[in-house]
Amino acid sequence: MTYWATVFKRAARETLALTPWASPAKAVFSVIPTLVAAVAAYALTSSPVQTGLITLAVTLALATSAFVWKMATVPPAMAREAEQALAALTPSEDAKAAAEKRRRRGVIDDLVRLYPLVADSMPPEIAAGIELPPMEWLNEELARRDEDWQIIETRGREYWTLEVRAMTPEEKITVAARSGQSAL
């Protein structure tokens, strides 16, 4: 269905919702202008036929103006509804943070499984899964995987992280020049 067909159908539906049978409050606002037009027409013409025609014309004019008004207001309403629907589909900051936390937990779990394969000796707490591998080894592996965070503290299987921004090549050269080392 095309956009304007959708707008037309919705405007027609919302215009019909303004009719007297929709609710008593709407009936007052729909019927009063028609009755005023009928009384004024009869007072001016004293002819029931002309009064009927004038009342019909006023009713059609009101319905047409309501429909035109709805045609003008439906597209912005549809745009707002579309934005709200998209916002509902877009993950919130909390959802993004939770996803990142799960991803990091997965990285740490992978490293915990890797540690027994590469370690020369392993304390029984780590072998039993009570503690994490050494923090220094975890941070080296995180750096090797180009993660932008490091572990700053561990207690048992819990850990706390710190965001680490990678140095640009220019920053590496500057730091190396200050320390007298090669940047490569």
Could you walk me through the main structural features you see in this protein, from its secondary elements to its overall organization?
There is one protein chain. Helix 1 packs across helix 3 and helix 2 runs antiparallel to helix 3 (48-89). The longest helix is centred in the middle third of the chain and has 42 residues, at 48-89. The protein has helices spanning 3-16, 24-45, 48-89, 93-118, 124-127, 135-144, 169-179, and strands at residues 149-155, 158-163. The model has no long low-confidence stretch (mean pLDDT 83). It has 184 residues and is mainly α. 70% of the residues lie in helices and 7% in strands. A two-stranded antiparallel sheet has the order 1-2. It is rod-shaped and about 110 Å long.
